[in-house]
């Protein structure tokens, strides 16, 4: 065998959890959590998207993705997996919980670790039976397959005869052989990663396995759906793990990459099945083994802590959700207040415990009108009385007050960028209620 670098594994895994008698309790709780969040938005007549809806199952927060085939689909914050839940009394031919493991989880914590995390989180509602519905057995290889073409593959099975390729006149980037429930994909992983959010995770994975990122990395993978797996008596995840090697080798025999130089051109055109198997195909087939791949196992308690790894994308998602939540719940909110919170948070990080508390540079002063008993608050700063800035939530104003407020902001919008933005927000709300023409709104929008 050659020294060509290879990593064998399972690139995609879909499966079901069999549920027990307690499952209905979980399903109804999920629906209740969704409806509670929706109600808060609807009460304020605020539009919401699926990503605004989150639920929690045993301390794991999940974001709603939508419904499909009767399942309510969710993803975890780090996109390690997707999970769907359905009504146990509907579509009884399917199990009630469906799982799709994502590459982010597979290549950082390992398949076994993510499965154990899910089993632990759902232990009150599921049994140990986990039927597999799709598995993509694969080999990442430091080898350039751009020379291949659809004419270089053979398969004796009619239903596997669909062959297509993507590339240019000189190279192949992606090639498909077959169709569901069994098909082969060969593609340039290096090119795919340039457009993928997983590039850092996968590059780290490749480097840790001795790959050279400056050279081409291809993926050779067989997608096998449940119908195909059943032909080999593979029902559960455990069946798949035990029989993965034989399953992959059988697939390599069913669809062969030919060494076209091993037969004459005439024989290649009339009976290409007599051509020898390409050496790299035979090498991948003989070496395939997922024992090392399955050894990537992360302790459950550490995984629960690691599952909340924080990055820029997660911060942005949480920040937007937090602002929307504040608006829905009538909390005062504007850009000035957010800036204050930012400075406060930054100071709290830099501030030492031993430092004395920061003194206010003003004194609170209240004036009470003797006739009306109305109280007004001021701040005494450098011997001057200053009225604190009062934030205004335009969505809370009635139509008349909103138009009055809009008129005031229009007269001040030229004074500063902040005044311009305040006017823009007020005008946007008025336009939403059809209280003003759209002409001014377009102009305002173009100048922000």
Stretches with pLDDT under 50, minimum 5 residues: 351-356, 439-448
First and last CA, distance: 64 Å
- What overall form do the CA principal axes indicate? elongated
What portion of residues belong to β-strands? 15-25%
Number of domains: 2
Tell me the number of helical segments per DSSP (H or I, 4 or more residues long): 16
Largest sheet: 11 strands, antiparallel
Mean pLDDT: 83
* Lateral arrangement of strands in the main beta sheet: 2-3-4-5-6-1-7-12-11-10-9
Radius of gyration based on Cα positions: 31 Å
Class computed from helices, strands and strand pairing: alpha+beta
Helical coverage, percent range: 25-40%
β-strand number: 16
Protein name: Replication initiation protein
Fold and architecture overview:
This is Replication initiation protein. The protein folds into two domains: 6-305, no CATH class; 392-448, no CATH class. The protein is 39% helix and 22% strand. It is built from 16 helices and 16 strands. It has helices at residues 23-43, 103-106, 111-121, 189-193, 199-208, 226-230, 237-254, 265-270, 279-287, 291-294, 300-306, 312-328, 335-350, 399-412, 417-432, 438-447, and strands spanning 6-17, 54-57, 60-68, 71-76, 81-85, 97-101, 132-141, 153-154, 163-167, 172-179, 182-188, 218-225, 256-257, 363-368, 375-381, 384-386. Strand 2 (54-57) and strand 3 form a beta hairpin. The chain is elongated, with a radius of gyration of 31 Å. Mean pLDDT is 83; it is low at 351-356 and 439-448.
């Amino acid at each position: 065998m050659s020294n060509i670098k290879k990593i064998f594994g399972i690139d995609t895994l879909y499966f079901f959890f069999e549920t027990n008698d307690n499952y209905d309790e979980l399903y109804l709780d999920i629906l209740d959590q969704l409806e509670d969040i929706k109600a808060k938005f609807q009460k304020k007549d605020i539009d919401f998207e699926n990503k605004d809806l989150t639920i929690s199952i045993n301390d794991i927060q999940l974001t709603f993705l939508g419904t499909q085939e009767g399942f309510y689909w969710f993803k975890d914050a780090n996109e390690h997996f997707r999970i769907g839940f359905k009504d146990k009394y509907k579509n009884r031919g399917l199990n009630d919980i469906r799982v799709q493991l994502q590459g982010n989880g597979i290549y950082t914590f390992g398949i076994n670790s993510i499965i154990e995390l899910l089993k632990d989180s759902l232990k009150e509602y599921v049994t140990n039976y986990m039927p597999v519905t799709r598995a993509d057995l694969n080999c990442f290889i430091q080898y350039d397959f751009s020379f291949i073409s659809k004419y270089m593959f053979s398969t004796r099975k009619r239903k596997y005869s669909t062959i297509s390729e993507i590339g240019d006149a000189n190279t192949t980037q992606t090639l498909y052989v077959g169709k569901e429930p069994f098909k082969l994909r060969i593609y340039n992983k290096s090119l795919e990663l340039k457009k993928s959010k997983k590039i850092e995770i996968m590059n780290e994975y490749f480097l840790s396995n001795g790959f050279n990122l400056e050279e081409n990395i291809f993926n050779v993978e067989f997608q096998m759906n449940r119908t195909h797996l059943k032909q080999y008596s593979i029902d559960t995840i455990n069946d798949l793990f035990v029989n993965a090697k034989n399953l992959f080798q059988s697939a390599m025999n069913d669809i062969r990459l030919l060494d076209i130089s091993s037969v004459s051109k005439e024989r290649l055109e009339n009976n290409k099945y007599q051509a020898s198997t390409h050496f790299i195909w035979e090498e991948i087939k003989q070496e395939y083994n997922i024992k090392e791949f399955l050894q990537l196992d992360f302790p459950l308690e550490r995984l629960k802590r690691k599952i909340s790894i924080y990055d820029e994308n997660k911060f942005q998602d949480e920040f937007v959700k937090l602002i929307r939540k504040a608006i829905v719940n009538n909390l005062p909110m504007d850009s000035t207040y957010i800036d204050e919170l930012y400075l406060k948070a930054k100071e709290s990080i830099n501030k030492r415990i031993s430092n004395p508390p920061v003194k206010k540079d003003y004194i609170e002063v209240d004036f009470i009108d003797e006739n009306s008993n109305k109280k007004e608050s001021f701040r005494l700063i450098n011997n001057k009385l200053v009225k604190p800035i009062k934030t205004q939530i335009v969505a809370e104003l009635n139509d008349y007050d909103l138009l009055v407020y809009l008129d005031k902001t229009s007269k001040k919008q030229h004074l500063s960028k902040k005044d311009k933005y305040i006017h823009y927000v007020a005008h946007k709300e008025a336009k939403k209620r059809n209280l003003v023409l759209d002409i001014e709104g377009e102009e305002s929008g173009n100048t922000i």
